[in-house]
Amino acid sequence: MGGIGEPGGGPGPREGPAQLGATLPTFCWEQIRPHDLPGDKSHRAVYDISRWAQRHPGGSRLIGHHGGEDATDAFHAFHQDLNFVRKFLQPLLIGELAPEEPSQDGPQNAQLVQDFRALRQAAEDMKLFEASPTFFAFLLGHILAMEVLAWLIIYLLGPGWVPSTLTALVLAISQSQSWCLQHDLGHTSVFRKSRWNHVAQQFVMGQLKGFSAHWWNFRHFQHHAKPNVFHKDPDVTVAPIFLLGESSIEYGRKKRRYLPYNHQHLYFFLIGPPLLTLVNFEVENLAYMLVCMQWTDLLWAASFYSRFFLSYIPFYGVPGALLLFVAVRVLESHWFVWITQMNHIPKEIGHEKHRDWASSQLAATCNVEPSLFIDWFSGHLNFQIEHHLFPTMPRHNYHRVAPLVKALCAKHGLSYDVKPFLTALADIVGSLKKSGNVWLEAYLHQ
């Protein structure tokens, strides 16, 4: 149970952890709710993580996003080995909810929360959180095979336009699939031991992609904690370049016009898909490694650039190898933007609503109709609903848990949105256009 109590009626958050065996002080939701703040911080237990938040492996922001809330389901969603994690909680325990207090905060649907937890238990009983070593070995193997194939094309056919174009495409596919594999590892859904997942992610993200695993996790875990919530999800906090959801009305009413937002669906094609990984990610990633002193990640990234340019400079020279690198990054950037945003941009985007875990994830995600090709091409991110509800579940099991999720949604009248692939892509542009028009109307008529 996330949140901490205030002084008055019981010990405050700064009075230290409860002693083992001692009677725990009790708190009500009115005392807990005001601590929805970074630095103030799982069943009917109340914890004070204010002194520990900076040491939280997922970052202080991630845990801070759940301050003053029922964090039980978020805690389960993010942690693979609960027994290992719980030993860190005991020193942080300061009390528990008063007996008369409900386990969920005020407006939440208690029956939905209970049913979702039963669904998760059913998934665990079905062993859906156990990974297939063969599946992930194949993924890594086909990525490495494409890296070798790309080099062999140039080695055997020479650096002409046709071989170079083919090589760029193969490398872009390899890079895209590497995004998917490191994503699995970042969610600790491959190996039983978290440490093994983290080491493997550093290799895939660093040696195969040239990025920092810690930087990715810092961004991505916040996205999962509060998807489509401004100032908590980095993926939608993109103003003033693009306006999404509720920000369109806010900017319009305040007469803010940094760009022609009514045309953002058009300039999206110029500065969105082509440049995200080539410019934004490269700069942000490097800055993160330097500022946060992630020297191991920096060495891993350096190993990628060394390998890439040592492999292709003999054929192209420095300018040609650099051009090949840019071409690959631009191609993979298109894949990254369209695939990752087709499940989120068309959904509800706004400020914190303090929903329960299942409702918050369903409001911000949609699925894309599955097929063998779409599953592979998207890294199973077409099952975005299942992935967000159970982020540590190996992706090859999403199709097995999907019927259970559909049944839960049907029971509680929740939207389980599934779209054709091309419709999902078109909805990104449509959502940008709709938000731009909302901004323009508010801008002109307020």
From TrEMBL:
<keyword id="KW-1133">Transmembrane helix</keyword>
<feature type="region of interest" description="Disordered">
    <location>
        <begin position="1"/>
        <end position="21"/>
    </location>
</feature>
<dbReference type="GO" id="GO:0005789">
    <property type="term" value="C:endoplasmic reticulum membrane"/>
</dbReference>
<keyword id="KW-0443">Lipid metabolism</keyword>
<dbReference type="InterPro" id="IPR005804">
    <property type="entry name" value="FA_desaturase_dom"/>
</dbReference>
<dbReference type="InterPro" id="IPR001199">
    <property type="entry name" value="Cyt_B5-like_heme/steroid-bd"/>
</dbReference>
<dbReference type="InterPro" id="IPR036400">
    <property type="entry name" value="Cyt_B5-like_heme/steroid_sf"/>
</dbReference>
<keyword id="KW-0275">Fatty acid biosynthesis</keyword>
<keyword id="KW-0472">Membrane</keyword>
<comment type="pathway">
    <text>Lipid metabolism; polyunsaturated fatty acid biosynthesis.</text>
</comment>
<protein>
    <submittedName>
        <fullName>Fatty acid desaturase 3</fullName>
    </submittedName>
</protein>
<dbReference type="Pfam" id="PF00173">
    <property type="entry name" value="Cyt-b5"/>
</dbReference>
<dbReference type="GO" id="GO:0016717">
    <property type="term" value="F:oxidoreductase activity, acting on paired donors, with oxidation of a pair of donors resulting in the reduction of molecular oxygen to two molecules of water"/>
</dbReference>
<keyword id="KW-0812">Transmembrane</keyword>
<keyword id="KW-0276">Fatty acid metabolism</keyword>
<dbReference type="InterPro" id="IPR012171">
    <property type="entry name" value="Fatty_acid_desaturase"/>
</dbReference>
<feature type="compositionally biased region" description="Gly residues">
    <location>
        <begin position="1"/>
        <end position="13"/>
    </location>
</feature>
<feature type="transmembrane region" description="Helical">
    <location>
        <begin position="309"/>
        <end position="331"/>
    </location>
</feature>
<keyword id="KW-0444">Lipid biosynthesis</keyword>
<feature type="transmembrane region" description="Helical">
    <location>
        <begin position="135"/>
        <end position="157"/>
    </location>
</feature>
<dbReference type="GO" id="GO:0006636">
    <property type="term" value="P:unsaturated fatty acid biosynthetic process"/>
</dbReference>
<feature type="transmembrane region" description="Helical">
    <location>
        <begin position="266"/>
        <end position="289"/>
    </location>
</feature>
<dbReference type="Pfam" id="PF00487">
    <property type="entry name" value="FA_desaturase"/>
</dbReference>
<feature type="domain" description="Cytochrome b5 heme-binding">
    <location>
        <begin position="28"/>
        <end position="98"/>
    </location>
</feature>
